[in-house]
Write a structure and sequence with these properties.
Elements: E1 5-14, E2 17-27, E3 32-36, H1 43-51, E4 58-63, E5 66-67, E6 78-81, H2 93-103, H3 108-121, H4 137-149, E7 155-159, H5 167-184, E8 188-192, H6 195-201, E9 204-209, E10 212-217, H7 219-224, H8 229-234, E11 241-250, E12 253-259, E13 265-270, E14 279-284, E15 289-291, E16 300-313, E17 316-323, E18 326-333, E19 343-349, E20 354-356
Parallel strand pairs: 3-8, 3-9, 6-7, 7-8
Antiparallel strand pairs: 1-2, 1-4, 4-5, 9-10, 11-12, 11-14, 12-13, 14-20, 15-19, 16-17, 16-19, 17-18
Bound molecules: adenosine-5'-triphosphate (ATP).
GO molecular function: ABC-type transporter activity; ATP binding; ATP hydrolysis activity
Pfam families: ABC_tran, OB_MalK
GO biological process, one term: carbohydrate transport
Length: 365
């Protein structure tokens, strides 16, 4: 299948400043691509380049198999939903949604039918005669989406569409967007700085930092096999534990030595990893460290740790222990008897381990 969006060697400069560097991304019909990264990493700029709102400095960009590198936004067969909603304040909701169709000369009956279909999909039928000023933030967001949906474009582009909503509404609208994507089978590109939004919505994630792609993959690939320390730290909450350790060959396996908070060494046996340099950063997610006895498997290794902090969080309890000079978080069951200041046997699942090079931050396994 031809990619719907194909970006090759894209560069974007503002004056002499390189904002995007050698971006290569392609997506298939029905994909939900999320561009995620910290503030200023260039994700909105990349979306604007896809939309044609910003010219690109180098490389090519095609949509639906056609080269769009120098094509104006209105001819790219895209629809964009902005963070600011960009609704016309003096027009009713219905007019806001149908305006684009009217400009394109779509006949009145088709306009009415499309309006009806989209209003029902988004459950905004009772609001059609109101003006944007008479709507809540979430309702305005729906109208902005309605305006994009009636276009039936090759590509939907979303620029942080939920960032003006309160936390509860964000979660609700997030699942609505997911449902919409599933029902429509549409292809979407979505910008967010919120890694949870990225994980929940995406079929494919691009993690950006400083205008450079750090990793492209499915949410599971990015979560389970982060390509470097930046991705490991940025994706996931609480973040992956990143523990300085020494890896030493011991027969067919590796001894992974970590210094405990009280200075005593603990040694975890890794039976499956290949050769590693001696100095490594060991990455384990909080859910891959359990209370001893609550995690089984051939790669599970237990070690006694001094617990510094216990944080009940309803369904789980997080405990924090100092390992390798870092505050390491483990996600335990809610009934744990862990006490701050007391020792506790923790079970480390080395089947889930990531190793990174301390210097470059690149993944080693
Ligand atoms: N018109 C412009 N002229 C010069 N520099 C710009 C311009 N627009 C954006 N930039 C710079 O480009 C970089 C990327 O900006 P961009 O808005 O794409 O980041 P972002 O990842 O979307 O961040 P945020 O999440 O804060 O919106 C920033 O350093 C920004 O200052």
């Amino acid at each position: 299948m031809a990619p719907i969006l194909d970006i090759k060697n894209l560069y974007k400069n503002y004056g002499s400043v390189e904002i995007l560097k050698d971006i290569n991304v392609s997506i298939e019909p029905g994909d939900f691509l999320v561009l995620v990264g910290p503030s200023g990493c260039g994700k909105s700029t990349l979306l604007n380049c896809i939309a044609g709102l910003e010219p690109i400095t180098g490389g090519t960009l095609s949509i639906g198999g056609k080269d769009m590198t120098h094509v104006s936004p209105k001819d790219r067969d895209i629809a964009m939903v902005f963070q600011s909603y960009a609704l016309y304040p003096t027009m009713s909701v219905a007019k806001n949604i149908t305006f684009g169709m009217k400009v394109r000369g779509v006949d009145a009956a088709t306009q009415a039918a499309k309006l009806q279909e989209v209003a029902s999909q988004l459950q905004i039928e009772p609001l059609l005669n109101r003006r944007p000023g008479q709507l809540s933030g979430g309702q305005r967001q729906r109208v902005a989406m309605g305006r994009a949906l009636v276009r039936d474009p090759k590509l939907f582009l979303f620029d942080e569409p939920l960032s003006n909503l309160d936390a509860k509404l964000r979660v609700e609208m997030r699942s609505e967007i997911k449902k919409l994507h599933q029902n429509l089978g549409a292809t979407m590109v979505y910008v967010t700085h919120d890694q949870i939004e990225a994980m929940t919505l995406a079929t494919k994630i691009v993690v950006l930092k400083g205008g450079v792609v750090q990793q492209i993959g499915t949410p599971a690939e990015i979560y389970n096999n982060p390509a470097n320390l930046f991705v490991a730290d940025f994706m996931g909450s609480p973040a992956m534990n990143l523990i300085p350790a020494k890896a030493k060959r011991n027969g067919s396996g590796l001894d992974i030595e970590i210094t405990r908070g009280d200075g005593a060494p603990i040694v975890l046996k890794d039976t499956h990893s290949g050769d590693l340099p001696e100095d490594v950063i060991l990455g384990l997610r909080p859910e891959d460290i359990a209370e001893a006895g609550f995690r089984a498997g051939q790669d599970v290794q237990e070690a006694q740790c001094l617990i510094d902090m216990v944080e009940p969080a309803g369904a789980d309890t997080y405990v924090v222990a100092e390992l390798g000079g870092k505050q390491v978080t483990a996600r335990l069951h809610a009934e744990t008897k862990a006490q701050p200041g007391a020792m506790l046997d923790l079970a480390f699942d080395l089947g889930k381990v990531s190793y990174f090079a301390p210097g470059t931050g690149e993944r080693l396994n």
